[in-house]
Write a structure and sequence with these properties.
It is built from 5 helices and 4 strands. With about 160 residues, it is α+β, with helices and mostly antiparallel strands.
Amino acid sequence: MQNHEPALPDLDDLDLRILDQLQENCALTNQDLAQRVHASPPTCLRRVRRLVEEGVISRQVAILAPEKLGSTLTAIVEVTLDVQAAERLAEFEAAMQAEPAVLQCYRVSTGPDFVVIAQVRDMPAYHALVHRAFTAAANVRNVRTFFSVHRAKFETRINVRG
């Protein structure tokens, strides 16, 4: 029997320290990063490049404060499709990937087919999103939306030691 799962990269303690620091602040210079993880700058640079090449670091981004940009409404949307054939699921995923208001899209089990997290300016922008992404889509059977009234935690950090 063959194992079709991709091989996990072999990460040592230095790799984990680098990942921890970059999750905290990916704008660190290589010199600062090396100092914080107790490695030489050339070693640190090689490790970061390897982590990027192996896909452990998929991208480095700035995390924005939506309220500072006037985008104050977070919608958590459950979507159930009429037809769950593989190509129809893939079509919906592609539509969500193309929608700028959609921050995250998860195919889930037990319950709806998808959970979508969207960030919009206000209720009219949400209604426009619903029309564009869900109402106009012929394969969407049911949409159920929850609106965030308070965000107690928002984190992008992954526990690399756990």
